[in-house]
Amino acid sequence: MVKKKINIVLIIVVLGLWGSVFYKTISQYFFTKEIAANTAYSEKIQFNQINKDTFALEKVSRDPFLNKQTQEAVSYPKRQYTNNASATPKRAKPAIQPRQLTVWPAISYHGYIKDSRGELVIIKINQKMFRLRKDALADGIIVKKISSDSLELDFNKERKVIKRFKI
Questions:
Q1: Which of 6, 17, 42, 111 could form a disulfide with 122 if both were Cys (CB 3.0 to 4.6 A apart)?
Q2: What single-letter DSSP state applies at residue 7?
Q3: DSSP assigned state of 149
Q4: What's the rounded Cα separation, in Å, for the pair 119 and 109?
Q5: Closest Cα partner for 100 from 61, 60, 142?
């Protein structure tokens, strides 16, 4: 008996929910709502204008992806004195290209190990220890040549020789 009453109440609730969903769906197509525009509010509308903030950007001299810095050489045009006797024009020299400086990370060579697979070195790059073999890559640095007292490293197409750090 109790179960029958609970079922009846639940059926009524479900029918009420589905009825409201059906009514909202159908009312969009058959009933039209006219919205009257109130002119009293339209006169009081004010728009705030946002002014753009402008500023000048400086030229960046360091490339964050290649870790290279560029320096621009300032060239001043030379005065050309004309001589009536010479009618041949002088050729202008091409402008000097900016030179790129590579900023190497802090590197120190701490050890050399020779095993059955080859040579292995222990180096510290930016306070991180690495064990590398020949032609291995770590933080953009490639080990090109290994010896017991020095290393030849390649970074952004530039080579550098690092001596062993002695304790």
A1: 111
A2: H
A3: S
A4: 14
A5: 61
